[in-house]
Each structure stands twice: as structure tokens, then as C-alpha cells.
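Structure in, sequence out. Go:
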């Protein structure tokens, strides 16, 4: 019975991507990238590795945690300027804030980044190194795709530091990277329409524009810059 319970909990924890930051210098580095005196949203505070130092330099920290036990623990332990919101960060309403921080739970990386992009908050996020490569990818590379386009439509992306698995407990199987996202003027007004367009476009990522009937160009979809994709969207959708 005890083993059975342990197995079920293990699966649950994996689904929650619970790898806790245990290297104080990594936590200090991430928090140093957040300007002082702001209202900050933190997704997945866990055991508070970022939350506590963040609270010390911020006006308020809204800590959104899905795990009920961790949320309750944090409510009891955190200073009064930490507002714990128990729930799924993909579903709960995000409070008004100036900045976003998260060691992103791996299982929700893409939808969370898309939700963040629609809010255009300045952010520092830790993601799998492969995701960081996708965010920073240049046209023509294998990592370049819809996620690159969606995030870069709203942000300038800087991959600042790679973190080895051992900075987390339990260590994940992959390396992570700290990424700074600085809002830029959005590349389009109709982001939802743009998302539908890029979904269609990248479902044929190796096809040429001529083959897709979009232009006489023999360039392939994955070789197009963000600006070229925006231009195609404008002409094809009459925007
Ligand atoms: C990678 S851990 C990071 C924990 C802590 N920030 C740290 O660095 O030690 C991810 C955290 O996000 C929480 N979490 C997972 N999915 C979530 C979701 N959809 N919404 C909010 N929190 C979530 C997990 O319970 C866990 O505490």
C-alpha cells in the first residue's frame, strides 16, 4: 500500500515538474535580474527558492502554485508581501503586475510562454536548454519554428546562462537555461490570427513559398525571417 501510494505521488510530482532549485548562487543570479520595487508574478514558487529573495526586493510577489500542499506551506512561511494563489497558472486570472519570473514547470512550457506573450510582461524565465535554443533560433535552423515566432513577435530574447541539472533537486534529465524576455512593439495586431497563420505555415515547414502558392519565391518556410512571415500574413490575410 505504501509503495503504491509512493508510485502515485511520484507520477503526480513528475507531472508537476517539481525540480527545486537548491543552488543559492543560481537563485541569487536569477533574482538579481529582477529590478527592485515591482509587483512580480512568480509561477511555480515551489519551496520558495526564488520567492523569498524576490519578496525581499519587490513590492509584492504573486506566487501562483498548483500543488495544494506547497501553496499552503508557502502561505504560512512567506512574508506578508507574498500573495499565494493556489491554482493552475494556465487557468487562473493573473493579477496586474510589472514583471514575471518563473523556473517554468517543464510540462507547461509552451502554453505558459504563449500566455506570457499575450501579456507582454518583462520576464526572466528558466526553461529547458532546448527550449532556450528554440526561442533564440535563427531562420534556417532546425530549432526555428512556431514557438520562436510567437515569442519573438512580442519579445527580444537573450539566453543568459546555462544551468546544469545538479542545481535542482531532484536533478532533471536535461540542462536548463535562464532567459530574459524584453517586450518589443508587437509584430502584429491580430496575434490570434497570426498564430493560426503560423500554425498552417509551419505545418509545411520545408515547403517553398511557390509550392504553397504564397509567392514566386523558392525560399522554404523555415528559412523565413519574422519580418518576412509578418509580411506574408499581412498580404495573405489582407491585414
Ligand atoms: C521546476 S519547479 C520550480 C520550483 C521553484 N520555483 C524552484 O525554483 O525551486 C516548478 C513548480 O511549479 C509548480 N507547477 C507545476 N505546474 C504548475 C501550473 N500549471 N501552475 C502553477 N504551478 C505549477 C510545481 O508544483 C513546482 O512547485
Amino acid at each position: 500500500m505504501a509503495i503504491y501510494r509512493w508510485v502515485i505521488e511520484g507520477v503526480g510530482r513528475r507531472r508537476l515538474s517539481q525540480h527545486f532549485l537548491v543552488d543559492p548562487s543560481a537563485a541569487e543570479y536569477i533574482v538579481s535580474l529582477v529590478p527592485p520595487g515591482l509587483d512580480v508574478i512568480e509561477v511555480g514558487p515551489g519551496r520558495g527558492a526564488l520567492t523569498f529573495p524576490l519578496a525581499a526586493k519587490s513590492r509584492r510577489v504573486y506566487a501562483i502554485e498548483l500543488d495544494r500542499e506547497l501553496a499552503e506551506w508557502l502561505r504560512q512561511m512567506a512574508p506578508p508581501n507574498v500573495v499565494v494563489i493556489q491554482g493552475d497558472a494556465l487557468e487562473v486570472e493573473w493579477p496586474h503586475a510589472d514583471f514575471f519570473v518563473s523556473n517554468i514547470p517543464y510540462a507547461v512550457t509552451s502554453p505558459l510562454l504563449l500566455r506570457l506573450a499575450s501579456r507582454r510582461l518583462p520576464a526572466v524565465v528558466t526553461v529547458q536548454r532546448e527550449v532556450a535554443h528554440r526561442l533564440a533560433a535563427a531562420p534556417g535552423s532546425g530549432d526555428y519554428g512556431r514557438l520562436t515566432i510567437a515569442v519573438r513577435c512580442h519579445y527580444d530574447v537573450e539566453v543568459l546562462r546555462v544551468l546544469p541539472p545538479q542545481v535542482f533537486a531532484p536533478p532533471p534529465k536535461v540542462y536548463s537555461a535562464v532567459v530574459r524576455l524584453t517586450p518589443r512593439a508587437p509584430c502584429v495586431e491580430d496575434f490570434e490570427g497570426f498564430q493560426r497563420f503560423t500554425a498552417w505555415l509551419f505545418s509545411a515547414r520545408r515547403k517553398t513559398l511557390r509550392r504553397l502558392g504564397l509567392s514566386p519565391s523558392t525560399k522554404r518556410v523555415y528559412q523565413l525571417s519574422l519580418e518576412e512571415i509578418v509580411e506574408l500574413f499581412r498580404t495573405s490575410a489582407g491585414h
